[in-house]
Amino acid sequence: MLLYLYPFLMGIIQGLTEFLPISSTGHLILFANFMNFPSDLSFDAFIHLGSFFAILVYYWKDLKELWGYKSFILISAIPGALAGLTLENIIESHFRSPEKVAFMLILMSLPMILGEKYGEKGKSIGNLTKTKALLIGCAQALALLPGTSRSGITISAGLLIGLKREEAAKFSFLAGAPLILGAGLYEGIELFKMEKIPYDVAIIGFSASAISSFLAIAFLLSFLRRHSLYGFVWYRILLALIILGVYLL
Fold it and tell me: pTM (2 decimals)?
């Protein structure tokens, strides 16, 4: 039973937290630690493919329009791809502890506060330039650190360069798609090549991630039309304090 329950829960957690600005990797590490399961970066990356699938489904009718932003999306993906290729082993070895997740949850709440406080929040994706897309990409590279949140750091960068909240979230999803796809395919091939996980278990994790990711996208876009990021900031800080209380006291 646990053979199927674990990937199902991991998929649900990953999907819900991938697009909400609260760090999917951080939550996966915390869940695995709490359940006393090994935290596997390869499986974490693979079930992110469910999130990529959710992006495709959610924006399917708009793909023709979104294709016009392909250069911005690719530019934003470059820094994260380079960081992933060069720093993955270091991050895997030194940054996947609950205490370090807690630290990054607090530290990377600061860009969200700055984005809300100083961002103009009046422009659309059509107002982006290649330079601004690259800046968002540089911010996205920081999401390799568990506890940061890819959506949180890129939405914050989008706000700081003047995007509306909903537009910043939309571009955040699109800018992350190439990295999610690349990492998921690479790690998925490695998983199956080394026979580290049965196919049925992988499908359960993927499916749970896809469904919960779709719901998270719909919720966040609706939420940001009326609300700020501050609620997520408080959640991150509270969670970090709980983690530090459990593991350090």
Answer: 0.93
CB atoms within 10 A of CB 217: 24
44 touches 88 (CB < 8 A): no
CA distance 222 to 151: 15
> Rounded to an integer, what distance in angstroms lies between the CA atom of residue 152 and that of residue 235?
13
Nearest C-alpha neighbor of 18 from the set 204, 152, 166: 152
- φ, ψ for residue 163 (rounded to 5)? -70, 150
Q: How many CB atoms lie within 10 A of CB 43?
A: 25
The string of pLDDT tens digits covering residues 41-55 is 677 778 889 999 999
C-alpha–C-alpha distance, residues 14 and 8, integer Å: 10
CA dist 199 and 2 (Å) reads: 15
Domain boundaries, the chain: 2-248
Residue ranges of the chain with per-residue pLDDT less than 70 = 1-2, 38-41, 195-196
pLDDT 10s digits, 142-182: 999 999 999 999 999 999 999 999 999 999 999 999 999 98
